[in-house]
């Protein structure tokens, strides 16, 4: 039966936008600008370590623990470089501030194939649209820079709301904002737990974006799996 949907909510990272290059490459380029040679692979590894430790210690960008997301990220960047052997405080601060700014623009983000067309077509069909993302407050700006912001009635980030997916409260806030019943809403994302399962848990429909070759989660019916975003409308209208 055709889904009677009124609202579509969207994840952003790796659903609508992706990084142009691995984090290690961006960090290495910033280091080079200051005359430092650090291997991108080493920086990538250090970043994963620093990001993981910071996320465990200060979940959701330190919201509720007195940190701003800018301070949270600046600490991650500095620790990433320290783990890769760079210890000069002045340069660390400069690089961290530059990278925080650069990750707010099309300098580092690009729109995924099919995303623009799919969002436009969903708007044309009259779906109401919003963003539900575990992102910091830069997201509004990132979406504007990438020329996607106008598709959405609202942008809910985990930092703004205080709840990170898979917490049901960020989805409940989206439903309240739009005044749409959960069974008339669907969430589109690339993460099985944080997007697909979390949306289902509040009674919404879920669509899982999954590139060929990614692991198969058995609970996802084929009509809810998107090989690309361009498949979305045909699945909704089946």
UniProtKB/TrEMBL annotation:
<dbReference type="Pfam" id="PF00702">
    <property type="entry name" value="Hydrolase"/>
</dbReference>
<dbReference type="InterPro" id="IPR051828">
    <property type="entry name" value="HAD-like_hydrolase_domain"/>
</dbReference>
<dbReference type="InterPro" id="IPR011949">
    <property type="entry name" value="HAD-SF_hydro_IA_REG-2-like"/>
</dbReference>
<comment type="similarity">
    <text>Belongs to the HAD-like hydrolase superfamily.</text>
</comment>
<dbReference type="InterPro" id="IPR023214">
    <property type="entry name" value="HAD_sf"/>
</dbReference>
<dbReference type="InterPro" id="IPR036412">
    <property type="entry name" value="HAD-like_sf"/>
</dbReference>
<dbReference type="GO" id="GO:0005634">
    <property type="term" value="C:nucleus"/>
</dbReference>
<dbReference type="InterPro" id="IPR006439">
    <property type="entry name" value="HAD-SF_hydro_IA"/>
</dbReference>
<dbReference type="InterPro" id="IPR044924">
    <property type="entry name" value="HAD-SF_hydro_IA_REG-2-like_cap"/>
</dbReference>
<protein>
    <recommendedName>
        <fullName>Haloacid dehalogenase-like hydrolase domain-containing protein 3</fullName>
    </recommendedName>
</protein>
